[in-house]
Amino acid sequence: MARKVAIYTRISRDDEGEGLGVARQREDCERLVDLRGWSLAKIYEDNDVSAYKRNVRRPEFELMLSDLASGLIDGVVSYDLDRLARQPKDLERVIDVFDSRKRLTFATVTNDIDLSAADGRTMARVMVAFANKASHDSSRRIRRKHLELAMSGKSSGGPAPYGWQKDDPNKVDREAASHIRAAQKEILAGVRIGTIRRRWHEERLGHPREGTKRIAHHHLEHMLTNPRLCGYRTYHGEILLNDNGEPVTGEWETINTVKEWEAVCAAVAERKKGGTGAGRPVGRKYLLSGIARCGLCHTKIRGQINQRWQPGSKASKYSYQCSVVNGGCGKVGRVGEPVEDLIIDLVLEEQRKKAAEDGSPVEVRWPGEAEFQTVSDDIKALTAAANAREITVSSLLQVLPDLERRRDELKLERARFLRELKRAESIAEGIKNREDFRDLPIERQQSIILHSLSAVSIHPAGRGRRIFDPDLIEPIWRE
Ligand SMILES: [Zn+2]
Questions:
Q1: 312 φ, ψ to 5°?
Q2: Which segments constitute the Resolvase/invertase-type recombinase catalytic domain (predicted)?
Protein backbone atom coordinates (compact mmCIF):
# COMPACT_ATOMS: atom_id res chain seq x y z
CA MET A 1 0.00 0.00 0.00
CA ALA A 2 1.20 3.49 -0.80
CA ARG A 3 2.61 5.53 2.05
CA LYS A 4 0.17 8.03 3.51
CA VAL A 5 1.97 11.32 3.59
CA ALA A 6 0.82 14.84 4.39
CA ILE A 7 1.80 18.16 2.93
CA TYR A 8 2.76 20.95 5.26
CA THR A 9 2.63 24.53 3.99
CA ARG A 10 3.25 27.77 5.77
CA ILE A 11 2.60 31.26 4.48
CA SER A 12 4.53 34.22 5.67
CA ARG A 13 4.51 37.83 4.58
CA ASP A 14 7.85 37.66 2.80
CA ASP A 15 6.51 34.94 0.50
CA GLU A 16 4.57 37.42 -1.56
CA GLY A 17 7.61 38.87 -3.26
CA GLU A 18 9.03 35.43 -4.03
CA GLY A 19 5.76 34.32 -5.56
CA LEU A 20 5.74 31.50 -3.06
CA GLY A 21 2.05 31.69 -2.32
CA VAL A 22 0.50 28.74 -0.67
CA ALA A 23 -1.03 27.56 -3.93
CA ARG A 24 2.37 27.17 -5.53
CA GLN A 25 3.88 25.51 -2.48
CA ARG A 26 1.01 23.08 -2.50
CA GLU A 27 1.18 22.31 -6.21
CA ASP A 28 4.91 21.64 -6.09
CA CYS A 29 4.48 19.41 -3.07
CA GLU A 30 1.62 17.52 -4.68
CA ARG A 31 3.77 16.87 -7.74
CA LEU A 32 6.50 15.45 -5.53
CA VAL A 33 3.99 13.20 -3.73
CA ASP A 34 2.79 11.87 -7.10
CA LEU A 35 6.33 11.39 -8.33
CA ARG A 36 7.26 9.24 -5.36
CA GLY A 37 4.06 7.22 -5.64
CA TRP A 38 2.83 8.19 -2.20
CA SER A 39 -0.76 8.84 -1.32
CA LEU A 40 -1.74 12.26 -0.05
CA ALA A 41 -3.65 11.99 3.21
CA LYS A 42 -3.95 15.58 4.33
CA ILE A 43 -2.76 19.14 3.82
CA TYR A 44 -1.74 21.08 6.89
CA GLU A 45 -1.61 24.81 6.36
CA ASP A 46 -0.46 27.47 8.80
CA ASN A 47 -0.78 31.19 8.30
CA ASP A 48 2.35 32.07 10.14
CA VAL A 49 2.28 35.66 9.04
CA SER A 50 5.29 36.80 10.92
CA ALA A 51 4.33 40.46 10.98
CA TYR A 52 1.27 39.77 13.10
CA LYS A 53 2.98 38.37 16.14
CA ARG A 54 6.30 37.17 17.32
CA ASN A 55 6.53 33.51 18.26
CA VAL A 56 3.31 32.65 16.52
CA ARG A 57 1.85 29.34 17.52
CA ARG A 58 1.29 27.04 14.60
CA PRO A 59 -1.83 24.99 15.34
CA GLU A 60 -1.63 22.89 12.17
CA PHE A 61 2.04 22.17 12.79
CA GLU A 62 1.12 20.88 16.25
CA LEU A 63 -1.67 18.77 14.81
CA MET A 64 0.70 17.37 12.21
CA LEU A 65 3.26 16.39 14.85
CA SER A 66 0.63 14.55 16.86
CA ASP A 67 -0.77 12.81 13.77
CA LEU A 68 2.76 11.71 12.85
CA ALA A 69 3.43 10.47 16.35
CA SER A 70 0.21 8.51 16.59
CA GLY A 71 0.66 6.87 13.20
CA LEU A 72 -2.20 8.51 11.33
CA ILE A 73 0.26 9.65 8.68
CA ASP A 74 3.59 8.17 7.63
CA GLY A 75 5.47 11.23 6.55
CA VAL A 76 5.57 14.87 5.55
CA VAL A 77 6.32 16.74 2.37
CA SER A 78 7.17 20.41 2.57
CA TYR A 79 8.32 23.01 0.06
CA ASP A 80 11.59 23.50 1.88
CA LEU A 81 13.02 23.04 5.33
CA ASP A 82 12.30 26.65 6.23
CA ARG A 83 8.54 26.11 5.75
CA LEU A 84 8.58 23.22 8.20
CA ALA A 85 10.87 24.54 10.90
CA ARG A 86 12.10 28.04 11.23
CA GLN A 87 13.31 27.64 14.79
CA PRO A 88 15.82 24.98 15.87
CA LYS A 89 13.47 23.91 18.66
CA ASP A 90 10.72 23.10 16.11
CA LEU A 91 13.17 21.00 14.09
CA GLU A 92 14.17 19.09 17.22
CA ARG A 93 10.54 18.26 17.90
CA VAL A 94 10.14 16.89 14.38
CA ILE A 95 13.33 14.86 14.79
CA ASP A 96 12.00 13.46 18.08
CA VAL A 97 8.97 12.11 16.28
CA PHE A 98 11.18 10.58 13.57
CA ASP A 99 13.14 8.94 16.38
CA SER A 100 10.09 7.37 17.93
CA ARG A 101 8.65 6.08 14.64
CA LYS A 102 11.41 4.53 12.59
CA ARG A 103 9.97 4.33 9.09
CA LEU A 104 8.72 7.88 8.59
CA THR A 105 9.22 9.70 5.31
CA PHE A 106 10.31 13.26 4.81
CA ALA A 107 10.83 15.14 1.57
CA THR A 108 11.17 18.71 0.39
CA VAL A 109 10.75 20.16 -3.07
CA THR A 110 13.94 22.21 -3.05
CA ASN A 111 16.45 20.04 -1.24
CA ASP A 112 16.35 16.40 -0.34
CA ILE A 113 16.93 15.85 3.33
CA ASP A 114 16.52 12.51 5.03
CA LEU A 115 15.41 13.12 8.59
CA SER A 116 15.55 9.43 9.39
CA ALA A 117 19.34 9.32 8.93
CA ALA A 118 21.99 10.89 11.14
CA ASP A 119 23.63 12.74 8.21
CA GLY A 120 20.35 14.23 7.12
CA ARG A 121 19.62 15.47 10.60
CA THR A 122 22.97 17.15 10.94
CA MET A 123 22.41 18.82 7.59
CA ALA A 124 18.95 19.96 8.62
CA ARG A 125 20.21 21.36 11.93
CA VAL A 126 22.91 23.34 10.20
CA MET A 127 20.47 24.74 7.65
CA VAL A 128 17.92 25.83 10.24
CA ALA A 129 20.59 27.32 12.46
CA PHE A 130 22.00 29.33 9.57
CA ALA A 131 18.60 30.58 8.42
CA ASN A 132 17.83 31.56 11.97
CA LYS A 133 21.07 33.43 12.44
CA ALA A 134 20.76 35.21 9.11
CA SER A 135 17.34 36.54 9.95
CA HIS A 136 18.55 37.64 13.38
CA ASP A 137 21.50 39.47 11.86
CA SER A 138 19.46 41.24 9.24
CA SER A 139 16.73 42.23 11.65
CA ARG A 140 19.31 43.67 14.04
CA ARG A 141 20.93 45.64 11.22
CA ILE A 142 17.59 46.87 9.91
CA ARG A 143 16.38 47.73 13.37
CA ARG A 144 19.43 49.90 13.92
CA LYS A 145 19.05 51.67 10.58
CA HIS A 146 15.39 52.39 11.15
CA LEU A 147 15.88 53.50 14.70
CA GLU A 148 18.43 55.97 13.40
CA LEU A 149 15.92 57.23 10.86
CA ALA A 150 13.22 57.42 13.49
CA MET A 151 15.45 59.25 15.91
CA SER A 152 16.41 61.81 13.32
CA GLY A 153 12.69 62.34 12.73
CA LYS A 154 12.70 61.02 9.18
CA SER A 155 10.10 58.72 7.76
CA SER A 156 11.34 55.67 5.91
CA GLY A 157 10.48 57.26 2.57
CA GLY A 158 8.51 56.02 -0.41
CA PRO A 159 5.10 57.18 -1.61
CA ALA A 160 2.28 57.61 0.90
CA PRO A 161 0.19 54.46 1.20
CA TYR A 162 -3.57 54.68 0.70
CA GLY A 163 -5.05 56.25 3.82
CA TRP A 164 -2.49 59.03 4.09
CA GLN A 165 -2.08 62.26 2.17
CA LYS A 166 -0.14 61.98 -1.06
CA ASP A 167 2.02 65.02 -0.37
CA ASP A 168 2.42 64.33 3.35
CA PRO A 169 2.57 60.68 4.40
CA ASN A 170 2.42 61.71 8.07
CA LYS A 171 -1.09 63.14 7.72
CA VAL A 172 -4.18 61.00 7.43
CA ASP A 173 -6.32 61.41 4.32
CA ARG A 174 -9.70 61.58 6.11
CA GLU A 175 -11.77 60.24 3.28
CA ALA A 176 -9.49 57.32 2.44
CA ALA A 177 -9.18 56.47 6.14
CA SER A 178 -12.93 56.29 6.51
CA HIS A 179 -13.10 53.85 3.58
CA ILE A 180 -10.42 51.69 5.19
CA ARG A 181 -12.26 51.66 8.50
CA ALA A 182 -15.57 50.83 6.83
CA ALA A 183 -13.94 47.92 4.98
CA GLN A 184 -12.33 46.67 8.21
CA LYS A 185 -15.72 46.66 9.89
CA GLU A 186 -17.03 44.53 7.06
CA ILE A 187 -14.12 42.11 7.47
CA LEU A 188 -14.97 41.76 11.16
CA ALA A 189 -18.57 41.09 10.21
CA GLY A 190 -17.45 38.23 7.98
CA VAL A 191 -17.54 39.96 4.57
CA ARG A 192 -15.02 38.51 2.14
CA ILE A 193 -12.11 40.55 0.84
CA GLY A 194 -13.26 39.71 -2.69
CA THR A 195 -16.61 41.42 -2.05
CA ILE A 196 -14.95 44.57 -0.73
CA ARG A 197 -12.57 44.45 -3.65
CA ARG A 198 -15.45 44.55 -6.12
CA ARG A 199 -17.03 47.50 -4.36
CA TRP A 200 -13.76 49.40 -4.13
CA HIS A 201 -13.23 48.79 -7.79
CA GLU A 202 -16.65 50.21 -8.66
CA GLU A 203 -16.09 53.25 -6.45
CA ARG A 204 -12.50 53.70 -7.67
CA LEU A 205 -11.08 53.49 -4.11
CA GLY A 206 -7.61 52.51 -2.99
CA HIS A 207 -5.51 54.42 -5.56
CA PRO A 208 -6.08 52.01 -8.44
CA ARG A 209 -3.26 52.26 -10.93
CA GLU A 210 -4.25 53.56 -14.34
CA GLY A 211 -5.15 50.81 -16.74
CA THR A 212 -5.29 48.07 -14.12
CA LYS A 213 -8.50 46.16 -13.85
CA ARG A 214 -8.75 45.80 -10.14
CA ILE A 215 -6.67 46.11 -6.99
CA ALA A 216 -5.00 42.79 -6.36
CA HIS A 217 -6.48 40.68 -3.59
CA HIS A 218 -3.26 40.61 -1.58
CA HIS A 219 -2.83 44.34 -2.09
CA LEU A 220 -6.25 45.13 -0.60
CA GLU A 221 -5.59 42.70 2.21
CA HIS A 222 -2.36 44.53 2.93
CA MET A 223 -4.11 47.93 2.92
CA LEU A 224 -6.52 46.66 5.58
CA THR A 225 -3.95 44.89 7.75
CA ASN A 226 -0.89 47.10 7.28
CA PRO A 227 0.85 47.53 10.66
CA ARG A 228 1.30 51.19 9.71
CA LEU A 229 -2.43 51.65 10.39
CA CYS A 230 -1.79 51.49 14.14
CA GLY A 231 1.56 53.24 13.96
CA TYR A 232 3.91 50.26 13.79
CA ARG A 233 6.99 50.66 11.67
CA THR A 234 7.71 47.86 9.26
CA TYR A 235 10.48 46.79 7.00
CA HIS A 236 9.72 44.22 4.29
CA GLY A 237 6.55 43.34 6.08
CA GLU A 238 8.23 42.71 9.43
CA ILE A 239 7.30 44.84 12.41
CA LEU A 240 10.42 46.52 13.72
CA LEU A 241 11.18 45.90 17.35
CA ASN A 242 13.29 47.96 19.67
CA ASP A 243 15.89 46.46 21.97
CA ASN A 244 13.22 45.62 24.52
CA GLY A 245 11.35 43.65 21.89
CA GLU A 246 8.56 46.22 21.65
CA PRO A 247 7.27 47.48 18.30
CA VAL A 248 8.81 50.72 17.13
CA THR A 249 6.14 53.30 16.32
CA GLY A 250 6.32 56.01 13.70
CA GLU A 251 5.45 59.67 13.97
CA TRP A 252 2.57 59.59 11.50
CA GLU A 253 -1.11 59.89 12.39
CA THR A 254 -2.73 56.50 12.91
CA ILE A 255 -5.96 55.17 11.48
CA ASN A 256 -6.44 52.26 13.91
CA THR A 257 -5.73 51.58 17.55
CA VAL A 258 -3.49 48.56 18.11
CA LYS A 259 -6.52 46.59 19.34
CA GLU A 260 -8.56 47.39 16.25
CA TRP A 261 -5.71 46.48 13.95
CA GLU A 262 -5.08 43.19 15.76
CA ALA A 263 -8.76 42.26 15.51
CA VAL A 264 -8.73 42.79 11.74
CA CYS A 265 -5.50 40.79 11.32
CA ALA A 266 -6.96 37.96 13.39
CA ALA A 267 -10.17 37.96 11.34
CA VAL A 268 -8.21 37.83 8.06
CA ALA A 269 -5.93 35.07 9.37
CA GLU A 270 -8.90 33.05 10.56
CA ARG A 271 -10.65 33.34 7.23
CA LYS A 272 -7.50 32.19 5.45
CA LYS A 273 -7.16 29.20 7.70
CA GLY A 274 -10.66 28.23 6.62
CA GLY A 275 -9.71 27.80 2.99
CA THR A 276 -7.77 24.56 3.20
CA GLY A 277 -7.74 21.51 1.01
CA ALA A 278 -9.57 21.72 -2.28
CA GLY A 279 -10.69 25.28 -1.74
CA ARG A 280 -13.55 24.30 0.53
CA PRO A 281 -14.41 26.75 3.26
CA VAL A 282 -14.00 24.89 6.52
CA GLY A 283 -14.06 27.74 8.98
CA ARG A 284 -13.69 27.61 12.66
CA LYS A 285 -15.04 24.62 14.47
CA TYR A 286 -17.63 25.27 17.11
CA LEU A 287 -18.12 22.86 19.96
CA LEU A 288 -21.80 22.16 19.37
CA SER A 289 -21.86 22.37 15.57
CA GLY A 290 -23.73 19.33 14.35
CA ILE A 291 -24.66 18.40 17.92
CA ALA A 292 -27.08 21.26 18.55
CA ARG A 293 -30.49 21.05 16.89
CA CYS A 294 -33.24 23.57 16.30
CA GLY A 295 -36.08 23.11 18.79
CA LEU A 296 -38.63 24.02 16.12
CA CYS A 297 -37.58 22.23 12.95
CA HIS A 298 -34.97 19.83 14.46
CA THR A 299 -32.31 20.41 11.78
CA LYS A 300 -28.70 20.52 12.85
CA ILE A 301 -27.49 23.90 13.98
CA ARG A 302 -24.00 25.21 13.34
CA GLY A 303 -22.01 27.89 15.07
CA GLN A 304 -21.37 31.11 13.24
CA ILE A 305 -19.63 34.41 13.76
CA ASN A 306 -21.99 37.03 15.13
CA GLN A 307 -22.41 39.69 12.43
CA ARG A 308 -22.91 42.42 15.01
CA TRP A 309 -19.83 41.58 17.01
CA GLN A 310 -17.07 44.18 17.10
CA PRO A 311 -13.87 44.32 19.11
CA GLY A 312 -14.56 45.74 22.54
CA SER A 313 -18.31 45.22 22.40
CA LYS A 314 -20.09 43.06 24.93
CA ALA A 315 -22.03 41.19 22.25
CA SER A 316 -21.33 37.50 21.87
CA LYS A 317 -18.66 36.66 19.31
CA TYR A 318 -20.57 33.73 17.87
CA SER A 319 -23.92 32.09 18.09
CA TYR A 320 -25.75 28.93 17.16
CA GLN A 321 -28.25 29.72 14.50
CA CYS A 322 -30.81 27.60 12.68
CA SER A 323 -30.07 28.39 9.06
CA VAL A 324 -32.32 28.40 6.02
CA VAL A 325 -29.26 27.66 3.88
CA ASN A 326 -28.82 24.35 5.70
CA GLY A 327 -32.47 23.46 5.23
CA GLY A 328 -33.72 24.79 8.56
CA CYS A 329 -36.46 27.24 9.51
CA GLY A 330 -34.03 30.01 10.44
CA LYS A 331 -36.13 30.99 13.42
CA VAL A 332 -34.03 29.81 16.35
CA GLY A 333 -30.69 31.08 17.50
CA ARG A 334 -28.80 31.53 20.71
CA VAL A 335 -25.57 33.18 21.84
CA GLY A 336 -22.71 30.71 21.77
CA GLU A 337 -20.82 30.92 25.05
CA PRO A 338 -23.66 30.45 27.60
CA VAL A 339 -25.04 27.47 25.69
CA GLU A 340 -21.63 25.83 25.59
CA ASP A 341 -20.87 26.61 29.23
CA LEU A 342 -24.17 25.12 30.32
CA ILE A 343 -23.67 21.95 28.29
CA ILE A 344 -20.07 21.53 29.41
CA ASP A 345 -21.11 21.85 33.06
CA LEU A 346 -23.97 19.40 32.66
CA VAL A 347 -21.84 16.84 30.85
CA LEU A 348 -18.91 17.06 33.25
CA GLU A 349 -21.27 16.69 36.19
CA GLU A 350 -22.97 13.70 34.60
CA GLN A 351 -19.69 12.01 33.78
CA ARG A 352 -18.43 12.56 37.30
CA LYS A 353 -21.57 10.84 38.61
CA LYS A 354 -21.22 8.03 36.09
CA ALA A 355 -17.59 7.51 36.99
CA ALA A 356 -18.55 7.32 40.64
CA GLU A 357 -21.08 4.56 40.00
CA ASP A 358 -18.89 3.01 37.26
CA GLY A 359 -21.40 3.19 34.42
CA SER A 360 -21.11 1.00 31.35
CA PRO A 361 -19.41 2.49 28.26
CA VAL A 362 -21.62 3.96 25.55
CA GLU A 363 -21.17 3.76 21.81
CA VAL A 364 -20.30 7.10 20.24
CA ARG A 365 -20.67 7.81 16.57
CA TRP A 366 -18.41 10.07 14.56
CA PRO A 367 -20.31 13.17 13.34
CA GLY A 368 -18.72 13.06 9.86
CA GLU A 369 -20.01 9.57 9.03
CA ALA A 370 -22.84 10.82 6.80
CA GLU A 371 -20.61 13.05 4.70
CA PHE A 372 -18.04 10.30 4.40
CA GLN A 373 -20.73 7.93 3.16
CA THR A 374 -21.98 10.49 0.60
CA VAL A 375 -18.50 11.22 -0.74
CA SER A 376 -17.63 7.53 -1.00
CA ASP A 377 -20.92 6.82 -2.76
CA ASP A 378 -20.31 9.70 -5.18
CA ILE A 379 -16.90 8.30 -6.07
CA LYS A 380 -18.39 4.84 -6.66
CA ALA A 381 -21.28 6.18 -8.74
CA LEU A 382 -19.06 8.39 -10.89
CA THR A 383 -16.53 5.65 -11.52
CA ALA A 384 -19.32 3.26 -12.42
CA ALA A 385 -20.82 5.85 -14.78
CA ALA A 386 -17.46 6.31 -16.50
CA ASN A 387 -16.99 2.54 -16.83
CA ALA A 388 -20.45 2.30 -18.36
CA ARG A 389 -19.55 5.18 -20.69
CA GLU A 390 -22.37 7.33 -19.37
CA ILE A 391 -19.86 10.09 -18.71
CA THR A 392 -16.45 10.64 -20.30
CA VAL A 393 -13.26 9.77 -18.49
CA SER A 394 -12.15 13.38 -18.71
CA SER A 395 -15.25 14.64 -16.94
CA LEU A 396 -14.70 11.94 -14.31
CA LEU A 397 -11.15 13.17 -13.79
CA GLN A 398 -12.38 16.74 -13.42
CA VAL A 399 -14.12 15.92 -10.16
CA LEU A 400 -12.50 12.73 -8.92
CA PRO A 401 -9.32 14.18 -7.37
CA ASP A 402 -11.27 16.63 -5.16
CA LEU A 403 -13.66 13.92 -4.04
CA GLU A 404 -10.83 11.53 -3.28
CA ARG A 405 -8.98 14.15 -1.31
CA ARG A 406 -12.12 14.93 0.70
CA ARG A 407 -12.68 11.23 1.34
CA ASP A 408 -9.11 10.81 2.57
CA GLU A 409 -9.38 13.87 4.77
CA LEU A 410 -12.55 12.49 6.29
CA LYS A 411 -10.89 9.14 6.85
CA LEU A 412 -8.15 10.88 8.72
CA GLU A 413 -10.66 12.94 10.69
CA ARG A 414 -12.45 9.76 11.68
CA ALA A 415 -9.23 8.12 12.80
CA ARG A 416 -8.40 11.20 14.82
CA PHE A 417 -11.87 11.26 16.33
CA LEU A 418 -11.66 7.64 17.39
CA ARG A 419 -8.22 8.17 18.83
CA GLU A 420 -9.44 11.18 20.80
CA LEU A 421 -12.44 9.19 21.93
CA LYS A 422 -10.22 6.48 23.34
CA ARG A 423 -8.15 9.08 25.07
CA ALA A 424 -11.25 10.90 26.32
CA GLU A 425 -12.54 7.75 27.95
CA SER A 426 -9.52 7.59 30.16
CA ILE A 427 -9.07 11.32 30.53
CA ALA A 428 -12.56 12.66 31.15
CA GLU A 429 -12.27 11.98 34.86
CA GLY A 430 -9.11 14.10 35.01
CA ILE A 431 -11.02 17.21 33.92
CA LYS A 432 -11.96 19.21 36.95
CA ASN A 433 -13.67 22.22 35.46
CA ARG A 434 -14.73 24.06 32.36
CA GLU A 435 -11.29 25.65 31.91
CA ASP A 436 -9.57 22.23 31.77
CA PHE A 437 -12.18 21.18 29.27
CA ARG A 438 -11.72 24.24 27.04
CA ASP A 439 -7.97 23.55 26.88
CA LEU A 440 -8.56 20.26 25.05
CA PRO A 441 -8.51 20.08 21.25
CA ILE A 442 -11.98 20.67 19.84
CA GLU A 443 -12.26 17.08 18.55
CA ARG A 444 -11.70 15.76 22.02
CA GLN A 445 -14.16 18.23 23.53
CA GLN A 446 -16.78 17.06 21.07
CA SER A 447 -16.12 13.41 21.73
CA ILE A 448 -16.54 13.98 25.46
CA ILE A 449 -19.86 15.76 24.88
CA LEU A 450 -21.02 13.00 22.51
CA HIS A 451 -20.09 10.49 25.13
CA SER A 452 -23.03 11.67 27.22
CA LEU A 453 -25.35 13.44 24.81
CA SER A 454 -26.75 12.48 21.46
CA ALA A 455 -27.93 16.03 20.77
CA VAL A 456 -28.76 19.39 22.29
CA SER A 457 -32.14 20.89 21.46
CA ILE A 458 -32.31 24.69 21.41
CA HIS A 459 -35.85 25.95 21.91
CA PRO A 460 -37.12 29.30 20.61
CA ALA A 461 -36.77 32.11 23.11
CA GLY A 462 -39.61 34.31 21.89
CA ARG A 463 -39.46 37.91 20.86
CA GLY A 464 -37.35 40.37 22.75
CA ARG A 465 -36.02 37.85 25.23
CA ARG A 466 -32.56 39.12 26.02
CA ILE A 467 -31.62 37.11 29.08
CA PHE A 468 -30.20 33.68 28.52
CA ASP A 469 -32.63 31.07 29.81
CA PRO A 470 -30.98 27.69 30.52
CA ASP A 471 -34.39 25.98 30.60
CA LEU A 472 -34.67 26.50 26.85
CA ILE A 473 -31.54 24.42 26.22
CA GLU A 474 -32.47 20.77 26.35
CA PRO A 475 -29.70 18.17 26.47
CA ILE A 476 -30.71 14.84 24.95
CA TRP A 477 -28.93 12.28 27.09
CA ARG A 478 -27.82 8.95 25.71
CA GLU A 479 -29.75 6.06 27.11
ZN1 LIG B 1 -35.20 25.68 12.78
A1: 90, -20
A2: 4-153
Q: What share of the chain is helix, strand, coil (3-state, %, to 5)?
A: 50, 15, 35
In a domain, 191, yes or no: yes
Average pLDDT, the chain: 78
Rounded Cα–Cα distance for residues 61 and 45 (Å): 8
Gap from CA of 456 to ligand 1 centroid (Å): 13
Are 230 and 260 in contact, with CB atoms under 8 Å apart?
yes
Spatial separation of the C-alpha atoms in residues 291 and 446, rounded to whole Å:
9
Q: Give pLDDT, residue 361.
A: 53
C-alpha 376 to ligand 1 mean position (Å)? 29
For residue 128, what is the domain's CATH number? 3.40.50.1390
Q: How far is the CA of 301 from the centre of ligand 1 (A)?
A: 8
Which DSSP symbol is given to 280? E
**How would you label 23-47 residue by residue, b for 16+ Cβ within 10 Å and e otherwise?**
eebbebbbebbeeeebebbbbbbbb
* Gap from CA of 469 to ligand 1 centroid (Å): 18
Cα–Cα dist 74/63, whole Å: 14
pLDDT tens readout for residues 452-468: 888 999 999 876 657 78
Residues 298 and 327 sit within 8 Å (Cβ to Cβ)? no
Q: What is the 323 CA–ligand 1 centroid distance (Å)?
A: 7
Structural domain that includes position 451 = 342-477
The predicted structure's pLDDT at residue 426: 56
Q: Is the pLDDT of residue 275 over 50?
A: no
Cα of 304 from ligand 1 centre, angstroms:
15
DSSP annotation of 229 reads G
Q: How far is the CA of 346 from the centre of ligand 1 (A)?
A: 24
Residue 169 clears pLDDT 60, i.e. is over it: yes
**DSSP letters along 326-364, please?**
TTS-S--EEEHHHHHHHHHHHHHHHHHHHHHHTPPP---
Ligand 1 centre to CA of 215 (Å) is 40
Q: How far apart are CA 252 and CA 227, in angstroms?
A: 12
Confidence of residue 227 (pLDDT cuts 50, 70, 90): confident
In a domain, 166, yes or no: yes
